[in-house]
Give the backbone structure.
Amino acid sequence: MRVNLTVNGQPRSDEIEPRLLLVHYLRDVAGLTGTHVGCESTLCGACTVLLDGKAVKSCTVLAAQAGGASVTTVEGLAKDGKFHPIQDGFWEEHGLQCGYCTPGMMMAAVDLLSRTTNPSEDEIRHALEGNLCRCTGYQHIIKAVQYAAEKMRAAAGR
Amino acid sequence: MFPGQFEYHRAASIKDALDLLKRYGDDAKLLSGGHSLIPMMKLRLAQPAHLIDVTKIAEMRAISESGGKIVIGAAASHDAVANSSLVRDKLGLLAEAAAAIGDVQVRNRGTIGGSLTHADPAADYPAAVLALEGEIKLERDGGARTIKAADFFLDLMTTAVQPGELLSQIAFAPIPTGTGYSYQKYPHPASGFAMVGVAALVSLDRSGKIASSRVGVTGLGAKAFRASAVEAALAGKAADAATIAAAAARTADGIDALGDIHASSEYRAELARVYARRTIQAAVARAKA
Amino acid sequence: MAVVPKFVGERIKRREDPRLISGTATYVDDVRLPDTLAAVVLRSPYPHARINSIDVAAARSAPGVVAVLTGGDLKDKVGGIPCVAPAEHIPFHPLLAQGKVRFVGESVAIVVASDAYKAQDAADLIDVDYNPLDAVSDPEKALEDGAPVLHEEFGNNLVTRALVPNPAVDEAIAKADKVIKFRIVNQRLAPVPMEPRGVLANWHQASGHLTIWTSTQIPHLLRSGLAAVLGLPENRVRVIAPEVGGGFGAKLNFYREEALVAYLSRMLGRPVKWIERRRENLAATTHGRDQITYLEVPVKKDGTVLGIKAKFICDMGAYLQLLTPAIPGFSGLMMTGCYKIPAMSFEQVMVFTNKMATDAYRGAGRPEAAYIAERTMDMVAGELGLDPVEVRRRNFIPKEAFPYATCAGLVYDSGDYNAALNKALEIVDYPKMRAEQADALKHGRYVGIGIASYVEICGLGPSVMLPPKVPGWESATVRMEPDSRVTVLTGISPHGQGQETTFAQMAADAFGIDIDDVAVVHGDTAIVQYGVGTFGSRGLSVGGAALMMSVGKVQDKLKKIASTMMEAPPDQLTFANRTVALKSDAAKSIPLQAVVDAAYGWKMPIPGMEPGLDATSVFEPAGCTFPFGTHISVVEIDPDTGVVKFLRYIAVDDCGNIISPLLVAGQVHGGIAQGIAQALYEEVVYDENGQLVTATLMDYAAPRAQMLPRYELAHTVTPSPLNPMGVKGVGEAGTIGSTPCVVNAVMDALKPLGIRHIDMPLRPEKLWRAIKDAKKA
Ligand SMILES: Cc1cc2nc3c(=O)[nH]c(=O)nc-3n(C[C@H](O)[C@H](O)[C@H](O)COP(=O)(O)OP(=O)(O)OC[C@H]3O[C@@H](n4cnc5c(N)ncnc54)[C@H](O)[C@@H]3O)c2cc1C
Ligand code: FES
Ligand code: FES
């Protein structure tokens, strides 16, 4: 079947098998390997991308379901050669070690920051409950999100 | 962990979906958020030849108020329900249950109709939908019927939905002002599902006694249920800690509790009693406020 | 020119991060070669069964399928998976089951197709006729007469028995005021790196070269192993560890799939890729721990511990992986912890069961030891009515005693255990916290304070501590390039630890250049000299020491050349600010580039000197380092549900000198998370018939953000004398300190109820049940 969707702002049209999972579409058809697969069972969040602005686990979405939608992956975070504040936050606060969970973590964090500009530590922990990290023990990830929130608030003049 | 082959159909309307269902019969499955169905397909526990996506049907996503009822389209996502100002204002218990489901990614995809139809024994919604006495609308080719929540859940992952039927919406009477409510769950440490979840609605009379209560319980047994023994024990009594504790102690009466490595049936039953006590207490506190 | 700052000891953002946060890093599954085929492994659903027959006809003719192999196809064509640790019984470890399966998840067949979906479709068509056999999952039962035998050729399920006897322990037991006896279990855990394993193999027919990308911690050791199993010369095998998404010991191994995929690529003349699924990861990647320990501890009334006698039952699983039977030894040797216990003895019985093999998992033997030592201290305190702090102080090895030879024969390099304990007590405000605890109890609240003072082994080697084929040395090459930038080639294989940053910090400071002027290369056997790899927190203390040796050699050469140019003796020179300068007068300097130009020039300034600026070194440590610390946690138990809530978590760690505080904090955090996970949440569960219950992350409870506390970190600094940087290592410290710390806290909370010990993981149900039973009694 044919699927038309927008990935990181670029419209695409591809011939796919209906059973193709969105994560495999992104990685193998669109060639965007920044989105990782950690469990393919909706439990680790490594495959998190934004679907029409909302975080979803792309291992449990069919590419076909995403037809007509707009997908943002980690590759689409930076704008004009500048990191997104969440990327800056992860870098600045050492929010990653092996980096495998990181793209998914960042996408989940972006969803959170689109809902609230000044999340508490508890809210951040709660918002990231769909994402597993085995390296960091989460503390630096929380700081990374706080860093990004602050930076985004400053940029918005709040 | 790769689904088998199938054809994908996107239904434009309820009628369209029903036509497709009729055409493909047992070979077809409705696809809503896909967060129960796709995992089963990846494990090849489900291998439908046709998937009929209902999420692009506008009326099935809508959340609205009509005829004094709050109507939730079956394809409304958990996130949409949790954050709808209408639902939060008039159906707070449902919003609380929706917000307690899984994680944000799951809530962004999963839908109320899919959840109710899938009828996972550990799903959150059923407790709230039972307590709120939701009315579930099932459509089929050439007709529709409305079924009470109490008659909807039949057994482990089994509901009143018949082959060829589609769940289109759930209607609720708004929670009257002055009625307190609460949904609380004990999340499974690995999956996040409800090891036990209790939804309580309590209204008090002028003297502060419990005028009525409705308690829905999920996670404990093969299907979610109304804890009628608890409700009976509360009726007409003073809303004090002792009464509530005594009533909550009956939450698991007569229920064949489930068990796994994280919670045996005995422990789950105790959790149900503890969570019933806590939710009823919280509901009472809100009713008083 | 701007002043070049110092980098060591500073908060430095990691060099490796830009590629990781932009999604452009390359993990195995991101490596794309044209015409790559995908492999899917068919695995046993049975814990123990004979294979009567396998019908692959339908699979072979399924769409897109290129090859299907079963055990029969490999018989006598390839070797088995090696175990390099000594053991009485080492079974043949096939790549695909040979006539029998011995654990759930054992590989039975492999399908290669044009893509993974099609390979899975075909795998579903394979018909295996199994004859199920009785299985055994309990290691104590596996030793009983009449237990199902896994490997018939041995007649029973014994892997090996290790004895470290010492009659002094029995004497101590005879004359002690009291002998405390108990049984504790270090349950089986799954390492669960977020990137599962994965392998891509590419056989180049014309040159007879094999290139393999694999998610591993030990590319060089793996190359040796692969070459041996496949019968290839080592110089024709290239192993690349690309970006590796976590290992924790699980990737310090040589797995069936690595050899299978290589074999298939050679057979088919095309690249073949296999990516592990999480279900496979939980079933067929090594597990950790799984030790039962029976302890006898003779004590004096004042809390002095006179000895420890232990019997271990160690569950090895169905086959032996690379180091499987070597792990328990560390638990025995380290079980006296930070204490001057005069005598110890132990017996270890290692057993085959119908489960996946155990092997190294973060800490590998030392967490078990620390758990034994620290539970022992609390048991002693509990039985004698003493404060756990007092018992620890009474038994600590005093700081004057270092280097200290333990009764197990280890030599602890340096330490000041009281300092770490005191600091932790100060942070938590111990007396106040105890008062609050007592007050809480009056209100029916169960608050507990848990202390664990740990010591662990880091910087593995020296080589004598390890099996012959996994040596303890490490290598490094330092090359100053013609533009005076530095390339470091290290034999370690970091996968999250951040040595691209720490090594760059060290090299930059050594040469007075910017950190951006240093490139650190690792993980490719065709580029990097032979090395050992990353495990046992050895990256910095052993790998970094090798780096500093090579740095020193290049520095020496630069100084010699500069001395002729500056007419000053080499030992008067130093590197700063991209110059070579006089130590006594930094203003007297020449640009580093001028010296480098001379070194690469057509005419060496010193006759007979070799051109170039390149040095390779191997560091063989004289001993291990022994980092230590004290962790304190404060918890509250909800008596209605048994749920544990953290009120505080304090970690005071001493890892010697600190190169990068930010990275040290990261390592400690991650370690604590995994240690808490063992204490409270995680357990690989097989039922009594050997069926794997925790087959998915729906059942295996790896902790999420809201299941963990906020960590409060502090340090004491006791440099190690064993390496030039004075570092000790920190990769496993958090894991080792946190597990006993949390269990001690929970048990402390339940002490008023007379509860003495509950085995991990401390699931709410277990606590609820214990509280209920205690209240009934
Ligand atoms: C990681 C994870 C965690 C989760 N945690 C929780 C949790 O904590 N609590 C909880 O309650 N749930 C949880 N869920 C389940 C989640 O809420 C699912 O989304 C929900 O149960 C199913 O809804 P869906 O829209 O995804 O349904 P689908 O998967 O699309 O469909 C489920 C079933 O319903 C049928 N169906 C769908 N729509 C209709 C319709 N309109 N009419 C008739 N039949 C229909 C389908 O054919 C299918 O059989 C979790 C899921 C995942 C993957
Ligand atoms: S890969 Fe999608 S949630 Fe783990
Ligand atoms: S950084 Fe390794 S899993 Fe999160």
Q: What stands out?
A: The radius of gyration of chain B is 19 Å. The longest strand of chain B covers residues 194-204. Chain B has a mean pLDDT of 96. The pocket of FE2/S2 (inorganic) cluster (ligand 3) is lined by residues A 96-102, 133-136; C 194, 246, 496 (CB under 6 Å).
